[in-house]
Amino acid sequence: MTLPEAIHAARRRHGLSAADPVVVLPAYRGRLPPLPSARRRAFTRHLAEAIAEAVGAPAAPPSRPEPPLASGLATLAGAACACCRGHCCARGGEHAYVDADTIRRVRRAEPGLGRAEILARYRAALGPEAYEGSCVFHGPSGCRLDRALRSDLCNTFYCTELKRFLRAQPATPPRTLLLAHDGEQARRASVHRIPVAAAPAAQRT
Ligand code: SF4
Ligand code: SF4
């Protein structure tokens, strides 16, 4: 089935019209074995180095993440990433993009936090399994790491497909078809709907 055919079929299946926008996302697929101890140890080593650098060096000026999306679009983006299941996390490996700047930011939010507590918080977030070859925090329901502990990159990144779609939206569409496609075929589809109360008056019936 070609991509246009997959979009047409998904629209029909979900009762959408051609006027409802569609965003085609990557589709992450992977094996989900138990998280090996070697990967846990590798992440712990990386984290210990990041903490040592953050605690030992003078504080760098706070990084400036991109401004957050409007709330409706942020919710839509979250639904899109859930449909994709984290294709962009595949390079997270045993570092998860956590670095000294991340640790500095965590300590600015909680100034009393010591090395052992920081280590313990991150290690507690590691789950029993993680996608093979992907980030150690990449689990079956997405990222296991609390947003407060994630890197700025993880908290603000949107892939090209999603960013292009979000930027083209003057407001959150009432209904958006989310289609995860791996280049060969559509793997998943879902619909993001905004609640009626949040829709612009002209769109309510
Ligand atoms: S940003 Fe893009 S690649 Fe990453 S999880 Fe979301 S849809 Fe997938
Ligand atoms: S920390 Fe979370 S968001 Fe960042 S790469 Fe790993 S799984 Fe993805």
Provide a concise account of the structure shown.
With 205 residues, this protein is of the alpha+beta class. It has helices at 3-13, 37-56, 71-84, 100-109, 115-125, 152-156, 160-167; strands spanning 22-25, 138-139, 142-143, 175-181, 186-193.
Report on the structure:
The chain has 205 residues and is of the alpha+beta class. The protein has one domain (3-62, 71-203). It is 39% helix and 11% strand. It has helices spanning 3-13, 37-56, 71-84, 100-109, 115-125, 152-156, 160-167, and strands spanning 22-25, 138-139, 142-143, 175-181, 186-193. The protein has a 3-stranded mixed β-sheet with strand order 1-4-5, with helices on both faces. Mean pLDDT is 90; it is low at 200-205. The site of one iron/sulfur cluster (SF4) has 11 residues, from α3.
